[in-house]
Each structure stands twice: as structure tokens, then as C-alpha cells.
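Here is an idea for our session: we take a single protein and study its fold together. Once you have written the record down, we can walk along the chain together.
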Amino acid sequence: MIDTVLPTYNRAPLAFVKGEGTWLTDEQGRRFLDLGAGIGVNALGHAHPALVETLGAQAQALWHVSNLYRIPQQQALADALVDKTFADTVFFTNSGTEAAELAVKMARKFWHDKGQPERGNIIAFHGAFHGRSAAGIAAAGSEKMTRGFAPLLPGFTHLPFDDLDAVQQAVTDQTAAIIVEPIQGEGGIRPASDTFLQGLRTLCDETGTLLILDEVQCGMGRTGRLFAHEWAGITPDIMMVAKGIGGGFPLGAVLATERAASGMTSGTHGSTYGGNPLGCAVGLKVMEIIADDTFLAEVNRKAGLLRQRLEGLVAEHPEVFDSVRGQGLMLGLKCKRANTDLVQAGYDEHVLTVPAADNVVRLLPPLTITDDEILTATAALDAAAKRLETSA
């Protein structure tokens, strides 16, 4: 008999009942150090006091009214995002998947309204992950994502990641946009080089092609800048944001320049829940905390400590680990043993990590993780590696 919850997840045998900061407590009262943060969602940890207070206050005032009316909290968060980024305008969603759908629609509508409806092709990259909707899986293109779901949404070309020459050869007068993650998350914590991102920006400027950045996982302070593309000194035309922007409350957004968004007029897109008072009140508080320069400087400092400790683990366990990759507090351990074995061994040491492609284990801790917790986390990973060595 099928489970009452559709069995699309391969779940760990753990159920958590309470979270506080970087820690989760399960049904048996055991505490686990959370280096996954809900796959990069709980950017400020579990039950952050400022978010709890903000959510409670808003919940007592107003939950939902729909986008038939002005929503002051939505306007305030849009203003904050525009003030801190390249964007001129923002549309709020409930998730990164919904943000991907709009980004694709926005790029194609832009060229349709320019009188070039044939210019609808979007260049994407091997190893990408843009959600599990029809547009998202078509953009990713991998067999793992698309098998069994044909016919796929057409109009995507897939190229090697971080290969600028391939992109330059592929752009034609039918190319609407290029969509890329500055750091591939599900793909195995693979950062794009600054040269690649800068080259994409130059190519888009020369050809009029729109540059879409997917910062759902690498954005909102995760790399030590508010958004990861800032390290390369570029700006996109359209950007997808989610996960950390809500600090655990379901919230996403598409940010865009006035030019890129010019085709999205009244009635071209909508969302019943997107940008509701609850989500935007929390998102605004998250922005106030994360966008602070002092906070981001601390992320960078702690990222240096974590990376140093992880490099030590690689040196200490050469039969288990190959290397460390990533940026800020978005790091990956490339493994020589099966990454799922390390994740499982971590459970035994009460530390939570997240598997990714390319045999990588992702470390996406809350940005509020402390130095002591970093030392505790790497000690637990050291013990997990020793478990694997003794079981070989």
C-alpha cells in the first residue's frame, strides 16, 4: 500500500521536534548539529529570536489578503531588495521553483514584445538545478531530472559549465537568455570562475541576451556577500532568489532590471500566496540582519575558520576525502568514499550534512554558526571519517 505521503523522498530515519540556533532535537531527545540548515534555508538558524518575534507580531495582525490589494510589507521588502541590488523591480513567489518559472517567462516575453518571438532559446549548463517544475527540469536537462516526464518544455541548449568558449559559439540570434548558478549547489558545490561570469556578462551586453542568475542556494549572504555574483563584479538582468530570503518561511523572489521586466505587465503573471504579509514581514527582518556589512564580515571570518578545519580533515583522512570546494559558508567535501556513507556516519556522530552530485557532501550551516560550533562540527566529521576508515 502506498504511503499517505507520496513516496518521492528517500528520507533519513530521523524526525525533529525542536530547533534552536544551529541545533536540532529529535523525537528521542538527541541533539544534532545542523550543517544543512534545511538545504540552505535556515540562514539565521532555527527559531532566531528576531524572526520569531516578527512572525508572531505579524500573525496577530494580518496573515493573507492576496495580491488584489496593496501589501505594505511586500512593498517594504521590495524597496529593500532594490536598494541593495542591481534590480529595479521584484516579484515575490513562494519558492525557488516558482522563481525559475517566472525567470523563463520573463526572458521569453521580453523578446516577444520586442517583435522577435523566435528569440526564445535559453542556454543552460550541465550539472544545473533550477527546481523540479516543467521549466526547471527542462533547464537542467539531465536524465535524472527529466526521465519519464517527456515531452519536455522545448527551447533549452545545454553546455558544459564554466566553459565560456562553448557559450560564445552557441549564442545565436535566437538566444533569449543564459541561465546559470554562480555556484552549483545540487551539482556538487561547483563555483563558476569570475572569468566565466564576467565573460557571460560581456557576451550578453554585446548580443542583447539576458543574463539570468540563479542565486536560490548561493544568495542571501551564503558566500560572504549578499549575493554571490558580487564577487565577480557583475550584475545580472534577472535573478532568482529563495531559500535563505525567508529564513525558514516559504518565500522566493525574482529581481529584475526595468529593461528585462518590461514585458511583464498586468495579467502576465501572478501568485495567490506570493508576497503575503507573513512571508514579507519575515523576509524584511532577514534582509535587515543579513545585508549588514558587519554581519557579512563575520560570515567571511567564520567561513575561513571552517575551510581551514575542513582542509585539515582532508589531509588527515586522504582515503575518505579528496578536496574542499566552494565559497563562504557554502562548502563541499569531495569524497573518495560514497558521500552517502559519510552522511550516514555523520548521523551516528550527531551531525547533519547534505549529499550532492559529483560525490560531494554539502555543508550549508546557518550563517550564525559560532566558532565553537565549527570546532564541534569538524570534530564530528573527523569521527565520522574514522568510522568509514575502520569499516573499509
